[in-house]
Amino acid sequence: MNQTGLQSLLSDLPLGGVRYFATLGSTNEFAKRWADQSAPALSLVVADEQTAGRGRLQRRWFTPRGAALAFSLILIPRIGRGQDGILPYRYTALGALATCEALNTLLPPGNPAQIKWPNDVIVSRRKLAGVLAEAGWQGEQLDTVILGIGINVAPSAVPPDEVLHYPATCVEAEAGAPVERWELLHAVLERLLFWNARLDTPEFLEAWNDRLALRDEWVQVTFDDGSPLEGQVLGLSEDGCLRLRDRQGKTHELTGGELNVRPVGRS
Ligand code: BT5
C-alpha cells in the first residue's frame, strides 16, 4: 500500500484528508497533532507499522509491519459537556461495533466478533482488536475525538503471550482463510461512517448491546485504583454503562473509564 493506493481505495467514502505511513510512532498521536492543525472532520491516518502504538493507561499496542491494521479517524463532534456524560464511551463503542460488523462478514456465524466492554473486540474469548478513543476538549465543548483502532489480521500481528494481559488472536486464524487487509479497512470505515451518523439513536445502543460479550457470565472488574468488583453481566444500561449484578443482588452501572473485565476463573 502507499498514499495514492489508499486514497484510491477509499475514494468512495466521504472522508476528510487521508494520510498513509509505512512506519509511524502512533496513528493516534499523529492524528491528534493533525487535528490541532485543523484537519478536516473525518480525516484518516493509517500506518502499516507502529513503533509506539498505544493502548489505554500508557499501555503498548503492537503493530508489526505487514500484518495488522492500525488507523485513526478524526471526529469533530461539537457537543457540550452537559450532554456528554458517556459520550467518549459511545465513540469507543462506535469503533468496536464497526469492527465487529466488518469482521463478522469474514468469520463463521457460530463464532462472531463481540465487544468486551468497554474497548476490546474478542473472538473465541481472545482479543483480536482494540479501540482507543481519545477526547480533546475546548473549554466546555468536546472538540475532537481521535478514534484509533488496531486489528490483528495475520498471525504475525499477534504478540507473544508473555506480554499480554489477555489472550490474543487474529482475523486470519479465526476466519481460517487469508484476508485482504485493505478491503477489511474499507469495510470497517464504511460501518464507522454509518454508525457515526447514528450515535444518539436507540438502534446504535441496540446494535452495541447485541454484540456485548460475556452476557450472563460472572466477571471480575478491576477499577483504576485497584479495587475489584465481581458480578454477573446483565447488559448495557440505556446510556451505555455496563450493568452488573453482584453476589448480594445489587446492580451496578459501570461508567469508569479504565477498567478490566475478566471472566471469573479464567486467565
Ligand atoms: C487497547 O488498549 O486495546 C487499545 C488499542 C488501540 C490501538 C490503536 S492502533 C491505532 C491507534 N494508534 C495508537 O497508538 N493506538 C490506536 P488496552 O485495552 O489498554 O490494551 C492494551 C493491552 O493489549 C496491552 O497491554 C497488551 O497486553 C495487549 N496488546 C498489545 N498489543 C496487542 C495486539 N496487537 N493484540 C492483542 N493484544 C495486544
Question: Mind telling me the CATH superfamily name of the largest domain?
Answer: Bira Bifunctional Protein, Domain 2
- How many distinct domains? 2
> What coarse outline follows from CA principal-axis ratios?
globular
Low-pLDDT stretches: none
Percent range for β-strand residues: 25-35%
N-end to C-end Cα span: 37 Å
Element pattern in H and E: HEHEEEHEEEEHHHEEEEE
CATH topology tier name of the largest domain: BirA Bifunctional Protein, domain 2
Radius of gyration: 18 Å
Binned, the helix content reads 10-25%
Q: Kindly state the number of beta strands.
A: 13
* Structural class label: alpha+beta
Q: Can you describe what's shown?
A:
By secondary structure, this protein is α+β, with helices and mostly antiparallel strands. It has two domains: 3-210, Bira Bifunctional Protein, Domain 2 (BirA Bifunctional Protein, domain 2, 2-Layer Sandwich); 218-263, Roll (SH3 type barrels), CATH 2.30.30.100. Helix content is 24%, strand content 31%. It is built from six helices and 13 strands. Strands 1, 2, 3, 4, 5, 6, 7 and 8 form an eight-stranded mixed sheet that branches. A hairpin with a 2-residue loop joins strand 6 and strand 7. Helix 3 (87-103) crosses helix 5 (181-196). The radius of gyration is 18 Å and the shape is globular. The protein starts with a helix and ends with a strand. The relative contact order is 0.14. The mean pLDDT is 91. Residues 26-28, 50, 53-57, 59-63, 70-72, 119-120, 127, 130-132, 148-150, 152, 157-159, 164-165, 168 line the site of biotinyl-5-AMP.
